[in-house]
Amino acid sequence: MATIDYKNVPIEEKALYVPPLNEIADVLSRGLQSTFESVDVSVVESPDLTQPPFELTSPGLTGNAKLVEIGGPPYLVPLVRRDKIYDLAELLRFLQRDPALLAGAGAGPWPYIGVNCEGIINVSVRGGEVEQGTRVVSVQPVGAAKGSSSYLQRRLPKNETRSALLGNYLLSDGQSGKVLKVVVKKRVGKSNFITAIRDTLKEHYGDKVVGLGGTFLLRAGRVKHHVMPDFSATPLCSDSDVDNWLHYFEMRAPITHVGTLVTGDLGLDLRVQHFHGYSAHGDGGHYHYDTTPEEVEYEGYFVPAAAVVRIDPPENTHSFGRD
Fold it and tell me: What subunit structure does UniProt give (predicted)?
């Protein structure tokens, strides 16, 4: 199936505010205490993220870091736009990024597996060679009723670098370097891990829009994830419609997540946070929140992005289907 020609779609780049890493660490150290009983935020040399349990396709997150948002929920709901297929390796060539890491949350390549699916994007390019670490998660069996379904996680082959419809990715050189390390335990507030980080940054920096990308590990506890079933044949016209369509599951640690967050819209119709997860034991999907606050533990590594690149935004947009 033909993929989008990046020369023929709108692409806009806007700068983000980039505070010093130590300053962000101080802000999060104070702000996250209202959501978690134990908070430890520091600036560290990135561990080798190619190693389990992270298994990224590049060792680090740094080097000309930007956020990339492709498409958007209006290409999925009310009704799907099946023509919105994006080749992510081709995108890196188009943006002239090599070496590069592209990692985050998107819709998987339904033409490859034959059904709508969650994409946990994890692609690197070095010297023109692609390393593919992307997983997809789909509802099983296909067509199963909500409440009686399960899910299947699988890894894409090297030559399958497509995604569909929407995506929120960290784009960097994939280098080792200084990153934010955020470790929290025992949730005492209402927000999930990512919302707590985003709200803390938003409260401190106000109209200065800050964006982070990276990865976090659910070290202990359980989380609520959704997995998209196949495309709806009837229009989904509200958050309630979308909620009734999605399949929800409680999943268990350890689960590695990748994605992005941004504290403002910049007039680009951005999805302000979006993380997907995968695991060695097969659990994975779209992260919502932990369901075991007393025992939950998160360990995250993030970098601030210098800009956000908005690619092929929907002309006719709406605000639902973005949780």
Answer: Monomer.
